[in-house]
Amino acid sequence: METDILKETIVEEKVTFTLEIKGKFIIFENVPARVCVETRERFFSPERVKRLQQIVWEDRKPTRVIETPVIEFTA
After folding, report:
1. What is the model's pLDDT at position 42?
2. What is the pLDDT averaged over residues 44-52?
3. How much helix, strand and coil, in percent to the nearest 5, is found in the chain?
4. Where are the beta strands (DSSP E) in the chain?
5. How far apart are alpha carbons 61 and 59 in whole angstroms?
6. Buried-most residue among 8, 33, 34, 39 (CB within 10 A)?
7. Would you kindly state where each structural domain of the chain is located, as residue ranges?
């Protein structure tokens, strides 16, 4: 019996994490995460997720504000 085993390589990186709350987007830059090299899937520690939630709840003043174009997809 043969089995295919997917080898995954996980590395520590700083990533950009985007969150939408009530139609508004919040962009977190330089968030530490574990990232799969092959799939680019990101994994965040429970402590990191808790900290992101705290920042949102604190309604912290943003470092900067950017304008983002929105394009509706049509088939």
Report:
1. 96
2. 96
3. 15, 35, 45
4. 10-21, 24-36, 42-43
5. 7
6. 33
7. 10-58
